[in-house]
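Notes to self, DegT/DnrJ/EryC1/StrS family aminotransferase:
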Amino acid sequence: MSKPIYVTKTSLPKKEAYNTYLDKIWENGWVTNEGPLVKQLQAKLQDFLKVPYVQYTTNGTIALQLAIRALEIQGEIITTSYSYVATASSIIWEACKPVFCDISKKDLCIDPDLIEEKITPATSAILATHVYGIPCQVEKIKKIAKKHNLKVIYDGAHGFGVKLNNISIFNYGDLSTTSFHATKIFHTIEGGAVFLKDELLSEKIRHSKSFGHQGDNHLFLGINGKNSEFHAAMGLCNLTQIDSIIKSRKKLFYRYTNAFEELPLIFLNIPENVQYNYGYFPVIFESAAARTKTQEFLEARNIFPRRYFFPSLNTINYMPDQNCPVSEEISQKVLCLPFYPQLTEEETKRIIKAVQKSFEK
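result:
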């Protein structure tokens, strides 16, 4: 049996580069509580992404929860049914109610034309995901939010390095969040961030992730959402190689696209005004049965794609039961193929050949 190929693989820097930061940690003995490497990473992210303020957090889920709490959101939050579960579970965790809105087949993001019909007197915000890093229709959402006096949070877990109209997508909305989990194109092993345009709100997040106090002065209810010097060190290393990572992924993205263009598959539509990061390679099949056939064919050959996103969030047993037919359909037909720079030429050919052969009768 051939060596297994999984859907993703973590990009790691050279040990020597990471060890240089470890030496600094050992020298100063500062391992957590907003140490110098955490501050350095936040500053470098602000510069790289051209965003005003960055608050580095334990993970992307905590980032979402901090965002909801900092904006003092209560009641109902209109959100997408097609995302990772943390997008919606964070809403419930913060004692709010997710109201699921279906997605557009065009970009797989929340359909702005369906948002207004979901608004009630209890609605306080919109939480939308830039699915696979493809930006939401931000101008339409901004217009709706302004009309109804709603806050807007963007879950940009897939959006590192993505630009819309030459501006980082983390600059849209009242604030944005992301994940720096090891599976992301930029990672700090575990981690996340909140991106903000307002200094006072940034300070509120900073205190909120540190138990809500500054020294002996307890300001408000907080939580432990800090991250460590060791995680920040990984981020500082990985930031230096992010451009080459995106370049490699772009090459593989179009190699797959060209290899599969004759197959009955739907690929991501990257808008002309978007500078993309090539974080994922999802394909949408004609039917759930066709997806199952290819998935089983690949797995029998030790190639492991992933049904991402599945299931549609509105169908999870602890979520509100709401009808989102497009999201439910796509979640049954989508498959993310193995996609990372470390794939060898032999492995890439093996994946391509297996997908092609899965369609042969």
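- The chain has two domains: 15-239, 241-358.
- DSSP finds eleven helices and 16 strands in the chain.
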